[in-house]
Task: structure prediction
Amino acid sequence: MDEIKPSTIRAFIEKNVSDFKSGFYEGDARGRAKSCRLDNELNLFTTIFNWYKTAEDFEQESVSLTNPVRTEHKRLGFIRAPQPKNRAITLEHALKFFDYLKPLYRDLAMVQFLCADRIGEIAGMQWNRIDFENSQIVIMETCQWDQISKTFRCLNPHPKNKEARPVHLTKELREILLRRLQARKPGCNFVFHVKGEPLNYGTIQLNYREAQRKANIPYSGTHILRHGMATLARKIGGGLDAVIAMTGHKDFKLADHYSKLDHEFQKQTSEKIMNEFRKKIEGNSDQNNVIQLPFSKSK
Result:
């Protein structure tokens, strides 16, 4: 590790930036990925380096080491600006998307949308967390999938932020969960399953992508439903507090990121404001109502 200097990191960045900008990369199938920056690689190295510094096995070797990754390295690792991508599905498109899903994945997607949750939290939902009597769901466990095979590995005992989140059981959610209750398998505590086995992320992706293609909507992935409900909550609820109430975020910056309002909403808001402005202008158009300010000579 002591042989890795800032100049080593710079050389690594320059080589990779050159490769990603090359005609070969652009012409290759990977070129469609359009790698935009090397932040992930630099962050991974920083994580490894920090682990090395804190590991007892390397206590002596790492005592004088400093992280060779510098702020300027991320700037040098910038390749191109990412293409604009709408991450928040509209309500109209969400309903269209649901129509093209198979029953199991339609219920999964609708619960994800209505709860504004991550797909892992919905796929990992357990029956003992659902209280029909008090109309409440507790978002707690979450599925962990293998990053390569995208198959189920284990059930984490808590969500991403390590805290349980209560969700009100609306009429629509109740109907879906009662339907799922009829498909419950003995010995299986998963609300969503295939023959008693937890869902694999790869299968969820496959079903979502197929429905998105058939519905001909400009969205991809599973996280669009969380973004979509966050944006809808902001429009209807009128602020970031409504977003936080739906998504469980504690950070207003994250809540803002998840609920970026579209141009149409900005247009509607702008027109409402200008209508009030025009009313005031028209109300003051009668010059007889204008009060003249006294003019005083400067001394």
